[in-house]
Design brief:
The termini are far apart. The protein is of the alpha/beta class. Helix 7 (266-287) runs antiparallel to helix 8 (293-307). It contains 14 helices and 14 strands. Strands 1, 2, 3, 4, 7, 8, 9, 10, 13 and 14 form a ten-stranded mixed sheet that branches. It is globular.
Length: 496
């Protein structure tokens, strides 16, 4: 063995002379931050705050960096951290950055946008007097692959693209940020939108069980907790039942309802449709092909009256109209479609005879505005200069649903119920838009009606309904109400 080693050394020396080449150690990636100081006027009070744009590494048990989280935090200056709440915020997708909540409603700046029409460039970021910074510090998290968050060189992004993987990595970010910034004694809230509510429910349980981090509140915006209420798969009649009131709201907004209903107060009409949906309509769908022809005809009449769709179309759809076809059919003769995220918005359809819309006008109304505004804001105001693309929406598919949805629909209601049961001080706010055709409000009602909470804990759930869509805060009256209602929720939670 010694001879072999000596021969190897002679060979190296013969190639490189007396100097043995040094193996360069690869420098580990470094975390970066940019800190700037600002001031915002909220409710007549000047709020001095520090903005921190930075990265934080997710590491394995050996301490090796696996991924780099990007975040933006806003903290009010001169506050006692043990009394000052902190709220961890994120959007959904999966595959969405936190840009929407950040520049739409919560942060000290917001995008100036026309809440009912397409907003042309150039775009502006303006002071947001409805920011939550007067009530709570804010940390906006971009999950791995979104925003500027990326796996480190040599690591596969797929290890973060899944229900459980996502919860674990975001939980570690929250734990580490909380530790480094001495926020363990602070009141803590989670605020998620859309799939971000799926993440929030999972995090509430994971942080409680794995990190012993007890939360004060969870705020759910446009909730997606039980995916059976969302997926129009063959044989799943539940989604047709819970989508129906949202169809009615869309038809009312575009003046396509029966004249009698069109004149009636929308809230009264929606209560009527909700009763029909979980009563006659649900019973009819459960009967399937056994449904009596006369009963079927009566159901078709009522569905047509409540949706603005023709009786013939409803008959051909076998009483089951999926969201994509509704969005196309409601205004087909005008060659218009209604938005999925917000049915108030109209799209222009070149192919009037197709089954589904060619695009979502409510998505196009915000995507370009927010993207341009954020890229300017993060460089100019927050002094974060990177050439990397900020991934507003990232492709994280295929998403690993794993054990959470093995041979069933993804459902995180158990996570939320368990967290609320073990921590009876935990309160939940749920906000829904009545014009939301992505996560219908009645589906959220169904989910919470079936949460299985002990009666003593049901008072810990508060609901809010907004005359807007999935991103209710792009509707100015709803933005004002959202700040008032959710702000009061946070304040009252801390009084308990």
């Amino acid at each position: 063995m010694k001879k072999i080693c000596c021969l190897a050394l002679v060979l190296v020396c013969s190639l490189f002379g007396d100097e043995v080449p040094k193996i360069e150690k690869k420098e580990p990636p470094k975390e970066e931050i940019s800190v700037t100081n600002h001031e915002i006027l909220i409710n007549g009070h000047k709020i001095p705050y520090k903005a921190t744009a930075g990265t934080l590494f997710f590491k394995d048990e050996k301490g090796d960096a696996k991924a780099e989280f990007f975040y933006i935090a806003y903290t009010k200056e001169g506050e006692d951290k043990t009394k000052r709440p902190i709220t961890y915020c994120f959007n959904g997708g999966p595959g969405s950055s936190a840009i929407w909540l950040h520049l739409g409603v919560l942060g000290p700046k917001r995008v100036e946008i026309d809440h009912e029409n397409f907003t042309p460039p150039p775009y502006k970021v303006i002071d947001n007097p409805y920011s939550f910074l007067d009530i709570t510090d804010l940390v906006f998290i971009d999950p791995i692959s979104t925003g500027y968050s990326r796996p480190v060189a040599g690591e596969d992004a797929k290890q973060f693209h899944g229900v459980e993987e996502d919860i674990k990595s975001v939980a570690e970010f929250i734990r580490l940020y909380t530790t480094r910034n001495n926020r363990w004694d602070s009141p803590k809230f989670l605020l998620g939108e859309s799939y971000g509510t799926t993440r929030a429910a999972g995090l509430a349980a994971y942080l409680h069980d794995e990190n012993r981090m007890f939360l004060n509140g969870v705020i759910l915006v446009s909730a997606a907790l039980n995916f059976q209420t969302l997926d129009d798969d063959p044989g799943n009649d539940l989604c047709y039942i819970v989508f129906l009131p949202s169809y009615t709201a869309a038809a009312w907004y575009h003046k396509k309802l029966d004249p009698e209903l069109q004149k009636q107060d929308l809230k009264k009409t929606l209560r009527e449709v909700e009763d029909f949906a979980i009563g006659e309509y649900a019973t009819a769908l459960l009967q399937g092909d056994k449904l009596d022809p006369k009963q079927r005809a009566a159901i078709i009449d009522k569905l047509s009256r409540y949706t603005g769709l023709s009786k013939q179309f409803i008959d051909l759809a076998n009483l089951r109209v999926c969201q994509a076809r509704f969005s196309k059919e409601l205004l087909r003769l005008q060659r218009r479609s209604v938005g999925r995220f917000d049915s108030r918005f109209l799209g222009i359809e070149n192919e009037a005879c197709s089954n589904a819309t060619s695009y979502d006008p409510s998505a196009e109304a915000v995507f370009g505005v927010y993207t341009a505004a954020f890229n300017a804001y993060v460089r100019e105001d927050l002094k974060w200069d990177r050439d990397a693309e900020y991934k507003v929406l990232a492709n994280v598919w295929p998403w690993n649903y794993g054990k959470a949805a093995s041979n069933k629909y993804l459902d995180v209601t158990d996570n939320l119920r368990n967290a609320m049961t073990r921590n009876p001080a935990l309160r939940v706010y749920v906000g829904s838009g009545i014009y939301d055709l992505a996560t219908p409000y009645f589906g959220t009602d169904y989910t919470f009606d079936h949460l299985g909470l002990d009666p003593s804990l049901r008072k810990n759930v508060q609901k809010g309904y907004y005359e807007a869509g999935h991103m209710m805060y792009i509707h100015f009256p709803s933005l004002e109400r959202f700040k008032d209602e959710v702000g009061d929720f946070i304040i009252n939670t801390l009084k308990k």
